[in-house]
Amino acid sequence: MATKIKTIVTTVAVTLALSAGGLYAYDKASNVYTDATYDSSLGELYGKNLAYTGKKFVFTSSSSLKKFIEAYVKYHGNKKASLDLNFIDTSKLTDLNFVFAGDYSQITEKEYEALTKEEQSSYSDFGELGFLKCDRSKKQQIYNIDISLWDLSKVEKLNGTFMCQRFFINLSQLDVSNVKEMQATFAFNLLVPEGINYWDVGNVTNTSYMFKMTLNTSNSIESWNVSKLEHADYMFSSSLFFDQNLNDWNLSSLKSAKGIFSLTSMKESNYQTWKAKISPNIYKSLFKFQ
Q: Which Pfam family, any one of them, does this sequence belong to (predicted)?
């Protein structure tokens, strides 16, 4: 059954409409849709490659953006050809939390404690993000997308943004210079998207669990500016093949890095300078299991 759409208010310039996904607005003068859903409520635009329509899609919440992208990629996705998502305007967003995350479950500590031991075994503790797991029973989408022109000037959080996924994507053009939190950004991934070695992470204060359980972290992050980094707990934990030279990292702001190298291949020669840079207690905790 086709999605029903009801026009609520129509002015000379703006139409407010209600679709199955909720309320969205269309500004006729500027060809801008705000918080739209990708379904038949878009009329003749549904089914088209929106990158070539001259329309702009603005989002004011990361949850609305996630729903739109999942539906759009499912309809247009192609493992071989890159899907252009640069018609999406992210300039009003303050976070991209879990926007590209695959199938996952997120529960609180209270919910976790109510589970059986067997049920608990499938979840991992991600600190203030709660307990997370990827749903491996469903086939993960493979994203081959282009978001190189996205405006992240107001984005301060990339928590879980790309977790539980498989990507063909280059992130080198993303300006993440205002981001402060990158918790679990790439957790549970088979590989990390290309280009993060070019990221300006100079304002990031929290990278806890960022690469936890990531199989391939081949992107070199040895030259990252982490001078404001305060919390890096379990950042590389269970990334079995991680072994990069981080001796040049500026750790002057570091307050905690518990288990950052636990269950990795990290050699002491690649972090030997840390002993003189951080407190003895932090240094002793670098390989602590969770």
A: DUF285
